[in-house]
Design goal:
Elements lengths: L3 E7 L7 E6 L7 E10 L2 H8 L2 H6 L4 E2 L3 E9 L11 E4 L2 E2 L5 H4 L10 E2 L11 E5 L3 E3 L6 H4 L2 H12 L7 E5 L3 H12 L4 E6 L2 H9 L4 E4 L5 H8 L5 E6 L4 H10 E9 L11 H6 L4 E4 L7 H12 L8 E6 L3 H9 L7 E5 L1
Parallel strand pairs: 11-12, 11-14, 12-13, 14-15, 15-16, 17-18
Antiparallel strand pairs: 1-2, 1-4, 3-5, 3-9, 3-18, 5-6, 6-10, 7-8
The chain binds zinc ion (2 copies).
The site of one zinc ion has 9 residues, from helix 3.
Protein backbone atom coordinates (compact mmCIF):
# COMPACT_ATOMS: atom_id res chain seq x y z
CA UNK A 1 0.00 0.00 0.00
CA UNK A 2 1.57 3.32 -1.06
CA UNK A 3 1.60 6.28 1.35
CA UNK A 4 0.90 9.01 -1.18
CA UNK A 5 -1.63 9.42 -3.96
CA UNK A 6 -2.53 11.78 -6.77
CA UNK A 7 -5.52 14.05 -6.22
CA UNK A 8 -7.24 16.92 -7.99
CA UNK A 9 -7.25 19.57 -5.28
CA UNK A 10 -9.03 22.89 -5.04
CA UNK A 11 -5.98 24.53 -3.50
CA UNK A 12 -7.28 28.04 -2.88
CA UNK A 13 -10.34 30.26 -3.37
CA UNK A 14 -10.55 31.05 -7.09
CA UNK A 15 -10.95 29.26 -10.42
CA UNK A 16 -9.10 26.05 -11.32
CA UNK A 17 -7.59 23.11 -9.45
CA UNK A 18 -4.24 21.35 -9.29
CA UNK A 19 -3.10 17.74 -9.52
CA UNK A 20 -1.06 17.20 -6.35
CA UNK A 21 0.62 14.35 -4.54
CA UNK A 22 -1.04 14.10 -1.14
CA UNK A 23 -1.34 11.70 1.81
CA UNK A 24 -3.75 8.80 1.36
CA UNK A 25 -6.74 9.53 3.64
CA UNK A 26 -6.84 7.93 7.10
CA UNK A 27 -10.08 6.11 7.87
CA UNK A 28 -12.10 6.09 11.10
CA UNK A 29 -13.68 2.98 12.68
CA UNK A 30 -16.89 3.37 10.64
CA UNK A 31 -15.22 4.21 7.31
CA UNK A 32 -13.81 2.35 4.35
CA UNK A 33 -10.93 3.28 2.06
CA UNK A 34 -11.62 2.81 -1.64
CA UNK A 35 -9.19 2.67 -4.56
CA UNK A 36 -10.95 4.71 -7.23
CA UNK A 37 -11.34 2.95 -10.59
CA UNK A 38 -13.50 5.54 -12.35
CA UNK A 39 -14.85 8.92 -11.34
CA UNK A 40 -17.13 11.23 -13.27
CA UNK A 41 -17.37 15.01 -13.45
CA UNK A 42 -20.66 16.51 -12.23
CA UNK A 43 -22.11 19.98 -12.79
CA UNK A 44 -21.40 20.61 -9.10
CA UNK A 45 -17.69 19.96 -9.72
CA UNK A 46 -17.78 22.48 -12.56
CA UNK A 47 -19.26 25.09 -10.17
CA UNK A 48 -16.43 24.38 -7.71
CA UNK A 49 -13.81 24.40 -10.48
CA UNK A 50 -15.06 27.70 -11.90
CA UNK A 51 -15.56 29.05 -8.35
CA UNK A 52 -19.06 30.45 -8.80
CA UNK A 53 -20.98 32.28 -6.10
CA UNK A 54 -22.39 29.09 -4.57
CA UNK A 55 -18.92 27.51 -4.37
CA UNK A 56 -17.47 30.63 -2.76
CA UNK A 57 -19.98 30.37 0.07
CA UNK A 58 -19.78 26.59 0.51
CA UNK A 59 -16.30 25.20 -0.24
CA UNK A 60 -13.35 25.53 2.11
CA UNK A 61 -10.07 24.89 0.25
CA UNK A 62 -7.78 23.07 0.28
CA UNK A 63 -10.07 20.15 -0.57
CA UNK A 64 -10.01 17.18 -2.94
CA UNK A 65 -12.76 17.53 -5.55
CA UNK A 66 -15.24 14.96 -6.90
CA UNK A 67 -18.10 12.84 -5.59
CA UNK A 68 -19.15 10.36 -8.30
CA UNK A 69 -17.07 7.19 -8.50
CA UNK A 70 -16.74 3.44 -8.49
CA UNK A 71 -13.86 1.58 -6.92
CA UNK A 72 -12.53 -1.25 -4.83
CA UNK A 73 -12.49 -1.37 -1.03
CA UNK A 74 -8.88 -1.71 0.14
CA UNK A 75 -9.30 -1.13 3.88
CA UNK A 76 -12.21 -1.27 6.33
CA UNK A 77 -12.58 0.40 9.75
CA UNK A 78 -12.77 -1.75 12.90
CA UNK A 79 -16.56 -1.31 13.25
CA UNK A 80 -17.46 -1.83 9.60
CA UNK A 81 -19.74 -4.85 9.19
CA UNK A 82 -21.31 -4.76 5.74
CA UNK A 83 -18.20 -4.43 3.58
CA UNK A 84 -14.92 -6.22 3.12
CA UNK A 85 -11.67 -5.67 1.28
CA UNK A 86 -12.16 -6.37 -2.43
CA UNK A 87 -15.80 -5.24 -2.59
CA UNK A 88 -16.70 -3.12 -5.62
CA UNK A 89 -18.50 0.01 -4.41
CA UNK A 90 -19.91 3.40 -5.32
CA UNK A 91 -21.38 5.91 -2.90
CA UNK A 92 -24.49 7.81 -2.06
CA UNK A 93 -23.01 11.29 -1.80
CA UNK A 94 -25.52 12.60 0.74
CA UNK A 95 -24.00 11.75 4.11
CA UNK A 96 -26.82 11.80 6.69
CA UNK A 97 -26.46 12.58 10.42
CA UNK A 98 -28.73 9.74 11.55
CA UNK A 99 -30.24 11.88 14.33
CA UNK A 100 -32.59 14.49 12.84
CA UNK A 101 -36.33 14.04 12.21
CA UNK A 102 -35.76 13.28 8.52
CA UNK A 103 -33.12 10.66 9.27
CA UNK A 104 -35.40 9.02 11.83
CA UNK A 105 -38.36 8.90 9.46
CA UNK A 106 -36.77 7.39 6.37
CA UNK A 107 -35.85 10.66 4.66
CA UNK A 108 -32.08 10.60 5.15
CA UNK A 109 -31.57 12.03 1.65
CA UNK A 110 -32.83 15.40 2.93
CA UNK A 111 -31.16 15.20 6.35
CA UNK A 112 -31.13 18.50 8.25
CA UNK A 113 -27.37 18.23 8.77
CA UNK A 114 -26.51 16.81 5.39
CA UNK A 115 -22.88 16.65 4.34
CA UNK A 116 -22.03 16.07 0.71
CA UNK A 117 -19.03 14.06 -0.41
CA UNK A 118 -16.53 16.23 -2.29
CA UNK A 119 -18.43 19.38 -1.26
CA UNK A 120 -18.24 19.28 2.54
CA UNK A 121 -15.57 16.56 2.68
CA UNK A 122 -12.55 15.49 0.64
CA UNK A 123 -13.73 13.86 -2.58
CA UNK A 124 -12.83 11.18 -5.10
CA UNK A 125 -10.87 12.83 -7.95
CA UNK A 126 -7.94 10.87 -6.58
CA UNK A 127 -6.40 7.42 -6.40
CA UNK A 128 -8.18 6.78 -3.08
CA UNK A 129 -11.20 8.10 -1.22
CA UNK A 130 -12.34 7.56 2.38
CA UNK A 131 -16.04 7.06 2.88
CA UNK A 132 -18.47 6.33 5.75
CA UNK A 133 -19.83 2.76 5.56
CA UNK A 134 -23.38 4.13 5.80
CA UNK A 135 -23.20 5.69 2.31
CA UNK A 136 -21.26 2.92 0.56
CA UNK A 137 -23.21 1.06 -2.11
CA UNK A 138 -22.02 -2.40 -3.08
CA UNK A 139 -22.01 -2.77 -6.86
CA UNK A 140 -22.58 -5.85 -8.90
CA UNK A 141 -19.15 -7.00 -10.11
CA UNK A 142 -20.44 -7.24 -13.70
CA UNK A 143 -21.19 -3.52 -14.05
CA UNK A 144 -18.29 -1.75 -15.80
CA UNK A 145 -16.57 0.87 -13.61
CA UNK A 146 -17.39 3.81 -15.84
CA UNK A 147 -21.10 2.95 -15.76
CA UNK A 148 -21.03 2.29 -12.00
CA UNK A 149 -19.35 5.66 -11.48
CA UNK A 150 -22.38 7.60 -12.73
CA UNK A 151 -25.02 5.96 -10.55
CA UNK A 152 -25.31 9.07 -8.39
CA UNK A 153 -26.67 11.27 -11.24
CA UNK A 154 -28.44 8.25 -12.73
CA UNK A 155 -30.15 7.89 -9.35
CA UNK A 156 -31.28 11.52 -9.56
CA UNK A 157 -32.91 10.66 -12.87
CA UNK A 158 -34.48 7.45 -11.55
CA UNK A 159 -35.96 9.26 -8.54
CA UNK A 160 -37.08 12.28 -10.58
CA UNK A 161 -38.66 10.17 -13.32
CA UNK A 162 -40.25 7.39 -11.27
CA UNK A 163 -41.50 9.37 -8.24
CA UNK A 164 -44.89 8.38 -9.63
CA UNK A 165 -45.53 5.79 -12.35
CA UNK A 166 -44.74 6.60 -15.99
CA UNK A 167 -46.07 3.43 -17.64
CA UNK A 168 -48.40 4.30 -20.51
CA UNK A 169 -47.93 8.02 -19.86
CA UNK A 170 -46.75 10.87 -22.06
CA UNK A 171 -43.61 12.39 -20.61
CA UNK A 172 -41.75 15.61 -21.48
CA UNK A 173 -38.16 15.97 -20.26
CA UNK A 174 -36.78 19.53 -20.15
CA UNK A 175 -33.00 19.75 -20.14
CA UNK A 176 -30.45 17.84 -22.23
CA UNK A 177 -27.76 17.54 -19.55
CA UNK A 178 -26.80 14.06 -18.32
CA UNK A 179 -29.66 13.79 -15.79
CA UNK A 180 -32.17 14.78 -18.48
CA UNK A 181 -30.69 12.22 -20.88
CA UNK A 182 -30.72 9.54 -18.19
CA UNK A 183 -34.37 10.43 -17.44
CA UNK A 184 -35.32 9.80 -21.06
CA UNK A 185 -33.79 6.33 -20.81
CA UNK A 186 -35.45 5.59 -17.49
CA UNK A 187 -38.86 6.71 -18.81
CA UNK A 188 -38.34 4.57 -21.94
CA UNK A 189 -37.52 1.32 -20.12
CA UNK A 190 -40.31 2.00 -17.62
CA UNK A 191 -42.93 1.95 -20.34
CA UNK A 192 -43.65 5.60 -21.04
CA UNK A 193 -46.00 5.88 -24.02
CA UNK A 194 -44.43 8.90 -25.69
CA UNK A 195 -41.33 10.85 -24.69
CA UNK A 196 -40.51 14.44 -25.67
CA UNK A 197 -36.94 15.57 -25.03
CA UNK A 198 -36.36 19.31 -24.94
CA UNK A 199 -32.90 20.88 -25.09
CA UNK A 200 -30.68 23.33 -26.87
CA UNK A 201 -27.58 21.35 -27.86
CA UNK A 202 -27.89 19.27 -31.08
CA UNK A 203 -25.10 16.91 -29.91
CA UNK A 204 -27.03 16.07 -26.76
CA UNK A 205 -30.42 15.85 -28.48
CA UNK A 206 -28.89 13.14 -30.69
CA UNK A 207 -28.05 11.25 -27.48
CA UNK A 208 -31.65 11.79 -26.29
CA UNK A 209 -32.81 9.96 -29.43
CA UNK A 210 -30.49 7.06 -28.63
CA UNK A 211 -31.87 7.00 -25.08
CA UNK A 212 -35.36 6.51 -26.47
CA UNK A 213 -36.94 9.93 -27.00
CA UNK A 214 -39.73 9.79 -29.60
CA UNK A 215 -39.61 13.49 -30.36
CA UNK A 216 -36.64 15.80 -29.72
CA UNK A 217 -37.22 19.54 -29.69
CA UNK A 218 -34.48 22.16 -29.91
CA UNK A 219 -35.78 25.21 -28.07
CA UNK A 220 -33.65 27.45 -30.29
CA UNK A 221 -35.51 26.17 -33.34
CA UNK A 222 -39.13 25.59 -32.36
CA UNK A 223 -41.78 26.88 -29.98
CA UNK A 224 -41.54 23.99 -27.58
CA UNK A 225 -44.84 24.57 -25.80
CA UNK A 226 -46.69 24.84 -29.09
CA UNK A 227 -45.03 21.71 -30.48
CA UNK A 228 -45.88 19.58 -27.43
CA UNK A 229 -49.46 20.85 -27.17
CA UNK A 230 -50.02 20.24 -30.89
CA UNK A 231 -48.59 16.72 -30.64
CA UNK A 232 -50.89 15.96 -27.70
CA UNK A 233 -54.05 17.34 -29.31
CA UNK A 234 -53.99 20.37 -27.06
CA UNK A 235 -54.17 18.27 -23.89
CA UNK A 236 -50.55 18.30 -22.81
CA UNK A 237 -48.36 15.59 -21.30
CA UNK A 238 -49.15 13.57 -18.18
CA UNK A 239 -45.72 14.22 -16.72
CA UNK A 240 -43.24 17.07 -17.24
CA UNK A 241 -39.75 16.82 -15.74
CA UNK A 242 -37.78 20.00 -15.22
CA UNK A 243 -34.19 18.81 -15.28
CA UNK A 244 -32.86 22.21 -16.42
CA UNK A 245 -33.90 24.67 -13.72
CA UNK A 246 -34.23 27.82 -15.81
CA UNK A 247 -37.04 30.36 -15.77
CA UNK A 248 -37.97 29.22 -19.29
CA UNK A 249 -37.95 25.50 -18.57
CA UNK A 250 -40.04 25.99 -15.42
CA UNK A 251 -42.61 28.08 -17.33
CA UNK A 252 -42.68 25.48 -20.09
CA UNK A 253 -43.21 22.47 -17.80
CA UNK A 254 -46.20 24.21 -16.24
CA UNK A 255 -47.61 25.03 -19.69
CA UNK A 256 -47.23 21.59 -21.25
CA UNK A 257 -48.38 19.46 -18.32
CA UNK A 258 -52.01 18.44 -18.66
CA UNK A 259 -54.64 19.26 -16.04
CA UNK A 260 -54.21 16.87 -13.13
CA UNK A 261 -50.71 15.95 -14.27
CA UNK A 262 -47.37 15.82 -12.49
CA UNK A 263 -44.34 18.09 -12.59
CA UNK A 264 -40.96 17.08 -11.21
CA UNK A 265 -38.78 19.96 -10.05
CA UNK A 266 -35.16 18.81 -10.11
CA UNK A 267 -33.16 21.52 -11.95
CA UNK A 268 -31.75 24.23 -9.72
CA UNK A 269 -32.30 27.85 -10.79
CA UNK A 270 -29.47 30.26 -10.00
CA UNK A 271 -31.88 32.45 -8.01
CA UNK A 272 -35.59 32.91 -7.26
CA UNK A 273 -37.91 32.35 -10.25
CA UNK A 274 -41.49 33.39 -10.92
CA UNK A 275 -44.27 30.93 -11.67
CA UNK A 276 -47.87 31.44 -12.73
CA UNK A 277 -49.27 29.69 -9.67
CA UNK A 278 -52.93 30.33 -10.49
CA UNK A 279 -52.95 29.11 -14.09
CA UNK A 280 -49.99 26.78 -13.98
CA UNK A 281 -50.67 24.96 -10.73
CA UNK A 282 -53.92 25.75 -8.89
CA UNK A 283 -56.51 25.70 -11.68
CA UNK A 284 -54.72 22.82 -13.35
CA UNK A 285 -54.72 20.76 -10.17
CA UNK A 286 -51.21 19.51 -10.81
CA UNK A 287 -48.79 17.98 -8.34
CA UNK A 288 -45.21 19.26 -8.11
CA UNK A 289 -42.57 16.96 -6.65
CA UNK A 290 -39.32 18.51 -5.43
CA UNK A 291 -36.50 16.05 -5.96
CA UNK A 292 -33.23 16.29 -4.05
CA UNK A 293 -30.69 13.49 -4.18
CA UNK A 294 -31.86 9.90 -4.19
CA UNK A 295 -34.07 7.89 -1.83
CA UNK A 296 -31.75 5.92 0.43
CA UNK A 297 -31.64 3.33 -0.77
CA UNK A 298 -34.81 2.62 -2.69
CA UNK A 299 -33.50 4.64 -5.67
CA UNK A 300 -30.16 2.80 -5.64
CA UNK A 301 -31.83 -0.61 -5.87
CA UNK A 302 -33.89 0.55 -8.84
CA UNK A 303 -30.92 2.15 -10.65
CA UNK A 304 -28.67 -0.86 -10.03
CA UNK A 305 -31.36 -3.34 -11.10
CA UNK A 306 -31.98 -1.43 -14.32
CA UNK A 307 -28.26 -1.38 -15.09
CA UNK A 308 -27.68 -5.02 -14.23
CA UNK A 309 -30.65 -6.23 -16.25
CA UNK A 310 -29.11 -4.61 -19.32
CA UNK A 311 -32.48 -3.06 -20.16
CA UNK A 312 -31.23 0.44 -19.42
CA UNK A 313 -28.20 1.20 -21.59
CA UNK A 314 -26.66 4.45 -20.39
CA UNK A 315 -23.48 4.14 -22.45
CA UNK A 316 -24.57 6.76 -25.05
CA UNK A 317 -24.50 9.39 -22.28
CA UNK A 318 -20.87 8.63 -21.34
CA UNK A 319 -19.12 10.40 -24.18
CA UNK A 320 -15.55 10.80 -22.89
CA UNK A 321 -13.08 8.78 -20.83
CA UNK A 322 -9.82 10.50 -19.88
CA UNK A 323 -6.92 9.74 -17.55
CA UNK A 324 -7.25 11.58 -14.20
CA UNK A 325 -4.15 13.64 -15.09
CA UNK A 326 -6.15 15.20 -17.94
CA UNK A 327 -8.85 16.59 -15.65
CA UNK A 328 -8.38 20.09 -17.14
CA UNK A 329 -9.38 18.71 -20.54
CA UNK A 330 -12.38 17.08 -18.85
CA UNK A 331 -13.53 20.36 -17.35
CA UNK A 332 -12.99 22.13 -20.69
CA UNK A 333 -15.26 19.53 -22.33
CA UNK A 334 -17.92 20.22 -19.70
CA UNK A 335 -17.91 23.97 -20.26
CA UNK A 336 -17.53 24.33 -24.06
CA UNK A 337 -20.61 25.77 -25.80
CA UNK A 338 -22.44 24.40 -27.65
CA UNK A 339 -22.10 21.29 -25.50
CA UNK A 340 -20.21 18.49 -27.25
CA UNK A 341 -20.11 16.11 -24.30
CA UNK A 342 -22.43 14.08 -22.10
CA UNK A 343 -20.81 12.57 -19.05
CA UNK A 344 -17.02 12.84 -18.77
CA UNK A 345 -15.35 10.02 -16.83
CA UNK A 346 -11.83 10.30 -15.36
CA UNK A 347 -9.74 7.17 -14.86
CA UNK A 348 -7.12 7.33 -12.07
ZN1 LIG B 1 -23.12 14.51 -9.03
ZN1 LIG C 1 -30.14 13.83 9.68
Amino acid sequence: MPEKMRAVVKTEPGPGAALLTVEIPQIGPKDVLVRVKATSICGTDVHIYEWNEWAQGRIHPPQIMGHEFAGEVVEVGSQVKSLKVGDFVSAETHIPCGQCIQCKTGQQHICANLKILGVDTNGCFADYVALPEVVAWKNDEDIPSELASVQEPLGNAVYATLVTGVTGKKVAVFGDGPTGLFSVGVARVSGAAEIFAVGRHPFRLEIAKKMGADIVLNEHEVDVVDAILTATEGIGVDIALDMAGSQDSIDQTLKVVRKGGRVTAFGIPSGPVQIDLANGVVFKGITIHGISGRLMFDTWFKAANLLKSGRLDISPVITHKLPLDEFEKGFALMTTRPKMSGKVVLLP
